[in-house]
Amino acid sequence: MTAIRKCLFPAAGYGTRFLPATKAMPKEMLPLVTKPLIQYGVEEALAAGITGMAIVTGRGKRAIEDHFDISYELEHQIAGSEKESLLDGTRELIERCTFSYTRQNQMLGLGHAILVGESLIGNQAFAVLLADDYCLTEGDSVLAQMVALYEEHECCIVAIEEVPTEQVSNYGVVAGAEVSPGLYRVDTMVEKPAPADAPSNLAIIGRYLLTPAIFDVLRATPPGRNGEVQLTDALQSLAAQGKVLAYKFTGTRFDCGSIDGYIEATNALYQRSREV
């Protein structure tokens, strides 16, 4: 078994729900208190033992690359001051992780973004983390929980949570047999179904562990909903072979791609920082 050593971050989207803030700033750089969303994602991946960060960007995303690089002018200005320690966490990520980048030139869906990232991943199992979904846990990070499961099952794993039935049309939805508490062998996956057509209320959130087989499947997957290559459609092909698990993770997930979720995450994280 090959350990999970790389995490793919699809980060080419426009973030239109946060306009005008995201007109010139990547949505992944929106701050939760004092750190950008994507930094929390990188920290979560590192906490799961992953050190290779592969980021699929697009036009106007230069700030992401600059963030995970040394700013000599800034560090010179704050050297020796009390502000110098504020960069300790970012410096640690730069030292411990490797960052690679490629561009998604067309917005053709999550499945297409992952296929674009194949050159950064190679022929190995990998994680996918959507920075829009911020997950707050008391113990192991969500990815760390999933990596432990992968070491046991060695197949694709998606993170899921129960959502109100009226909200299932916003998610990929799974159904299957529960093989152990909170762990399902998936047999059905549907992208953004109408509530009446949803096979369950178990919604996929932005954490995946994928085997390299997904790349060939994505290449053979025709455009689906909204004319985009849907990762859910590709995973359905593997689920039909019994090769996909869904895991009801331990923790709280905030949809930071929405204004309400972003504010809730900011408040929760700020409250936690005050309690430390």
What attributes does this structure have?
single chain, 276 residues, alpha/beta, Spore Coat Polysaccharide Biosynthesis Protein SpsA, Chain A, five-stranded mixed barrel, two-stranded antiparallel ribbon
Helix percent band:
25-40%
Question: What structural category do the secondary elements indicate?
Answer: alpha/beta
The end-to-end span amounts to: 39 Å
Strand order within the widest beta sheet = 8-11-9-10-12
Shape: globular
Weakly predicted, low-confidence segments: none
Class, according to the CATH hierarchy?
Alpha Beta
Structure explained in plain terms:
This protein is α/β, with parallel strands linked by helices and 276 residues long. It has a single domain, classed as Spore Coat Polysaccharide Biosynthesis Protein SpsA, Chain A (Alpha-Beta Complex). It is built from ten helices and 13 strands. The strands form three sheets. Strands 8-11-9-10-12 form a five-stranded mixed barrel. The longest helix has 17 residues. The mean pLDDT is 91.
